[in-house]
């Protein structure tokens, strides 16, 4: 038994020019994975008859299940229905239950007259099976051709999700013999993707054919996703757990979390497990670390506060960094961030603290301290550790990378010094 495959097609010029971000495909793929269907491709095409016809024809050579969103609205640029009718045959006919539903929406809910353009949304190709859409005015449609099913849904996310949950997801397991497609993800930090691959080569090369490993790097961190397919759910789960444990052992020196969570959530959970607290002193990140560490419910148990010492005068007045140190070493320096970390921990009366100072760009750099130069420090009652990093991204990504690396630095301090 091989895995059942699906292709997702999104239709709309707004997707191709980047005016609208395609979130539908990601959600659909997640739902299909959960019932044992593997998405093998995602395609986006514009509101073009030729493009839609071409992708429909090619689709049946890719996967037996084709899920389509978009192009079902009431305006002239929404051409999916007539093109579907052309491709699958038949004629456009009025679907009376949909017409009654649309009429009720306008008369009872919107309290507006229904114009002909709205009425025409109840027209569907005679070759389709209609999927009633109680969340909107555009019905879903299902076609079959050459042992492939095509399901067309509105691009509006709430309507698409309702149709998926009410019609599509319950139907697919009845039509296909589905196995289990399972995933587990862990998070590592402090090692690059290529070096990590060297560390776990023996595990990766020993993986069975139905077990795949994917690398997902992101600014100093790498997620590793292990995926397993098997016709039997229990067998897939057992195989996944076995190899995931081997993978965890192989990456243990760099392991941040054995689940798919961001590093700031991993730190928050670690702090809460120890009844510990943290504060931040931020210059170049401008409060971004504080934002991350307070983004989860219950974060007040571990996060106490932050001082955004963007200006040198604030570093001096609020954190006690001496003018002499600032003059001699500059704001982006080891002595400054260490003083910042120690001072904010004492001022906020927290178990730990994090401090950062750097040059995020695009200007402000010098030959000695180019753009992307960052000093960071973490402190406990008995220890203060600092380091310099050189980042190479744009301003926003430099801020994000600084926060992630500094948070990881504190996580390592806590793990390496558990007392």
CATH architecture of the largest domain: 3-Layer(aba) Sandwich
State the CATH class of the largest domain: Alpha Beta
**Rounded to an integer, what's the Rg over CA atoms?**
28 Å
Query: How much helical structure, as a percent, in the residues?
Result: 40-55%
The tally of strands reads: 17
Tally the helices: 16
Strands side by side in the biggest sheet: 2-1-3-8-7-6
State the low-pLDDT regions, or none. none
Backbone structural class: alpha/beta
N- to C-terminal separation?
52 Å
Instruction: Kindly estimate the percentage of residues that lie in beta strands according to DSSP.
Output: 25-35%
Shape descriptor: elongated
Estimate nothing, just give the exact number of structural domains. Answer: 3
Main sheet: strands, sense, barrel: 6 strands, mixed
What number is the mean pLDDT?
Answer: 96
- By oligomeric state, this entry counts as single chain
Report the CATH superfamily of the largest domain: MoaB/Mog-like domain
Q: Per CATH, what is the topology of the largest domain?
A: Molybdenum Cofactor Biosythetic Enzyme, Chain A
């Amino acid at each position: 038994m091989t895995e059942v495959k699906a292709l997702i097609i999104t239709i709309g010029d707004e997707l191709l020019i980047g005016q609208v971000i395609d979130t539908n495909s990601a959600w659909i793929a997640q739902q299909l994975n959960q019932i044992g269907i593997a998405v093998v491709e995602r395609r986006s095409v514009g509101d073009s008859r030729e493009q839609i016809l071409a992708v429909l024809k090619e689709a049946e050579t890719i996967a037996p299940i084709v899920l389509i969103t978009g192009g079902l609205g009431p305006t002239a640029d929404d051409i999916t229905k007539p093109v579907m009718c052309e491709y699958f045959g038949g004629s456009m006919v009025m679907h009376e239950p949909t017409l009654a539903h649309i009429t009720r929406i306008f008369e009872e809910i919107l309290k507006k007259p229904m114009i002909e353009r709205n009425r025409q949304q109840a027209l569907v190709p005679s070759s389709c099976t209609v999927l009633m859409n109680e969340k909107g005015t555009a019905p879903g449609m299902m076609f079959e051709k050459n042992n492939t099913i095509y399901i067309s849904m509105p691009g509006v996310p709430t309507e698409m999700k309702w149709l998926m949950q009410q019609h599509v997801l319950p139907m697919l397991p009845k039509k296909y013999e589905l196995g289990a497609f399972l995933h587990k993800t862990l998070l590592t930090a402090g090692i690059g993707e290529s070096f990590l691959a060297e560390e776990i080569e023996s595990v990766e090369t020993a993986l069975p054919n139905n077990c795949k490993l994917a690398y997902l790097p992101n600014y100093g961190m790498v997620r590793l996703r292990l995926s397993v397919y098997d016709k039997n759910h229990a067998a897939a789960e057992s195989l996944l757990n076995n190899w995931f444990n081997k993978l965890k052992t192989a990456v243990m020196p760099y392991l941040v979390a054995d689940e798919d969570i961001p590093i700031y959530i991993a730190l928050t959970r670690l702090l809460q497990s120890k009844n510990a607290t943290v504060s931040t002193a931020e210059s170049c990140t401008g409060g971004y670390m504080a934002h991350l560490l307070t983004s989860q419910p219950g974060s007040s148990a571990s996060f106490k506060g932050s001082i955004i010492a963007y200006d040198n005068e604030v570093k001096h007045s609020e954190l006690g960094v001496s003018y002499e140190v600032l003059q001699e070493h500059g704001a982006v320096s080891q002595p400054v961030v260490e003083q910042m970390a120690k001072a904010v921990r004492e001022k906020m009366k927290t178990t730990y603290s994090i401090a950062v100072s750097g040059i995020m760009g695009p200007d402000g750099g010098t030959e000695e301290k180019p753009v992307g130069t960052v000093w960071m420090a973490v402190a406990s009652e008995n220890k203060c550790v600092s380091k310099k990093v050189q980042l190479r991204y744009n301003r926003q990504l430099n801020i994000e990378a600084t926060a992630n690396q500094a948070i990881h630095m504190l996580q390592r301090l806590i793990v390496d010094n558990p007392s």
